[in-house]
Amino acid sequence: MLLKLFGIVCIMSGSIGVPFCYCKKLRGRIRLFGEFREALSYVEGEIRYSRTSLPESLLLAGRQRNSCTADVFKKVGESALIDPGIDLRCMLEQEAKRHFGGILSEGECRKSFEFAAPEGFMDYRMQCASLEKTTDWMLTQEMRMNKDYHDKCRMAWSFGIMGGTILVLMLI
Predict the structure, then answer these.
(1) What was the pLDDT predicted at 71?
(2) What is the pTM of this model?
(3) What is the rounded average pLDDT of the residues 33-49?
């Protein structure tokens, strides 16, 4: 009897813990998209008004901001200033994957750093247009994720508790 009770407690704690972790991961994705969008707006402002290059703007954004994206921008900006021939987009994607693991999907990572493709920073107008396009896409994604957040969490909680209840009923 004690073993069944222990099993029921384990099943119910798992059925509550999994949806909790899922919702926390979704909230982290939304927060990350918001921080990237704000950092890109800062980079765009640096390029538009100070007329700095993209690597310099990334470095300034990394130094000025206090967020999880600051390390990525700072490292890439420093590397690009040391070696101007590196592929910024590839470097940004690699650093983002290293820092954020599975939070961003492959497609999101590629789309988020389109502005750093070689054709995206020919002159400052193209840089600004490319950054603005990426920032708008990120805002759209963030709004969509915010809209879907409550529905996805509600479904995760429902499935978790229903699954746990069914397993407990089978155990009894």
Answers:
(1) 84
(2) 0.78
(3) 87
Q: What's the chain look like in SS3?
A: CHHHHHHHHHHHHHHHHHHHHHHHHHHHHHHHHHHHHHHHHHHHHHHHHHCCCHHHHHHHHHHHCCCHHHHHHHHHHHHHHHCCCCCHHHHHHHHHHHHHCCCCCHHHHHHHCHHHCHHHHCCHHHHHHHHHHHHHHHHHHHHHHHHHHHHHHHHHHHHHHHHHHHHHHHHC
Q: Report the C-alpha gap between 131 and 114 in whole angstroms.
A: 8
What are the structural domain ranges in the chain? 2-171
Token code pair at residue 9: 């407690």
132-137-142 Cα angle (round to 5): 125
